[in-house]
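Exam review. A common question shows you a sequence with its structure tokens and asks you to describe the fold in words. Practice with the pair below. Do the first one on your own.
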Amino acid sequence: MLNLIKPPKLNRGDTIAAVSLSWGGAGDKDIIWRYKQGKQRLHEIFGLEVVEMPNTLKGSEFVYNHPEKRAEDLMNAFSDTSIKAIIACTGGNDSIRMLPYIDFDIIKNNPKIFSGYSDSTITHLMCLKAGLSSFYGPSILNDFAENKEMSKYTIDWINKIWFNDDIIGSIPVSDNWTGQFLEWDICNKDISREFQSNHGYEIIQGEGISYGRLIGGCIEVLEIAKGTLLFPDLVDFNEAILFFETAEVNTPEWLFEDILRNYGAMGIYNRINGIIFGKPCNEVFYEEYKATIKKILAEYGKPNMPVMYNASFGHNEPKFTVPYGAKAEINCTEKTFSILEPAVCNN
């Protein structure tokens, strides 16, 4: 069962580090405006001072060619006592290449907030391996630099989860959502993405109330970690609630089925207490995924395992932040999802 260290909460005026751990586009000349916009909002909305690590803005070519420098930035950000949190600039697909250069003791001995999603799942697994709770949530280019303005839902949950050491409580689905992609061109800076009305959680199967500590991430990126020392030990899934979301690649149904079946073959469904799925990116394969989930869980004798669907985390906007290792509740009767403890500790 997971028992992770909670990092200290943030306070206005704290210094945080921006890191490029995957794709290095934050430093590319056509995109750096967007990085600066995200940095400005972190300061204006949350009162945070943002610093770049030495390689954060060296551009996509340098960052691709130097995974050891990405890891060095991450290790230095954890080691620096003046830095209170670390936020990924964006995702990508190759942060696994940092693995040979990671010192897990540095992470363990310097607990602080780390946030990101998508390929940042790899860094979350590094934190998990070190025994630290991290936050599957916003990144700078994607969320803080959202076209025109940040979503209130995202802002509210950042404030409640990072800056507050009270019990988090019930987390409703956002009233609206978007998966639309607008090119990160400065010409689109003041053009808001098209948002649609949302509906609440769906219960795909199960009844009653299920409890467990949260573990998971981007389902496609978790596949990259399998077979490495980063993938969680099987005991980490004991009595857990698994959280999954799918990337903008819109994984086809057959591959989604194969991935879910693999978790059954590993015996993970026999260990967990429930699953919560984020809304599929742009709602592609929304109904098809639901049918596949029921099919695979039935194959492994789990037709009544609680499964909640359409949560507001992952590759759509807006999003709440998912703290690894926090005790959560799926209430199938009331169709509610809650986190039953604080995600951070008091300094």
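Now try the second one, then compare your answer with the model answer below.
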Amino acid sequence: MTTRPALPAPPTFATGAVRVFGLSLGEMLWSRRTVFLMLVTGVPVFVALVFRIVQSTGVAPLRVNSAPVDGGAIFGMMIWVFFLRFIVPVLGVFYGTALLADEVEDRTITYLFTRPIRRGAVLMGKYLAYLVSTSLVVLPSVVLVYFLLVPLGQVARTFTAFAADLGLLALGLAAYGALFALVGAALKRPLVSGLVFVFGWEQIALIVPGYVKRFTVAHYVQGLVPHAMPSDGVAAVLQSVLRDNPPALVCILALAGVVAVSLWLGVRAVESREYVLDQ
């Protein structure tokens, strides 16, 4: 009596996610979105370069109450204005909502879903590729801005704040990316919904008194800014604007919760949703 050879066991969720990650990372790094990302992150580098050229002439590029603002404080302001308030949420929207939407639009989603891996692993692998690809472009941009603005004599004093800024940016990318990965997995027009959330809901909720702001990602990211920014010069002015901030630990736990819950719901949405390709 002959026996049939045993079929190989399907890969685990983690193995499937790693395989999709390896497949997606190269595609993301060489995509048009990454070119757009490099152009966007190049803006603060250009601004920092202009500031550095002005400083080299002996003229203070920025003054508050007639007092010159040092490079460390300018760097903290640029982290808040350019990166946390604009670049990070925009990248989360454009990359997160496209993790599956691009596959549906290109009609390649069926090829991914016919592989012997769980559907949720596809989303998780693409999310990990998003984290790596955006970090590889955003964080070097921040490093360039830092060393253009901060004199070498202030590096030792401000390096702890600089490291905190890098961690805050990574956490912001993770939170926004996970949230909009869920939006992309659950909704048919995710990009529009993501833009409305970032440039509509969050902007309004942050200025409305009460508890509404607690239902935004920006509230918890913003709550960590005073802990990452230098405490002198223009940073003090910015910190006076950031009122009613939760403690740093609450912000970190809230953002980690956004990542965990969004990815869990996103995996469930992908595995239960029927993706119908338009003819």
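Model answer, second protein: Residues 152-186 form the longest helix (35 residues). Residues 227-242 have pLDDT under 50 and may be disordered. Full marks require stating both points clearly.
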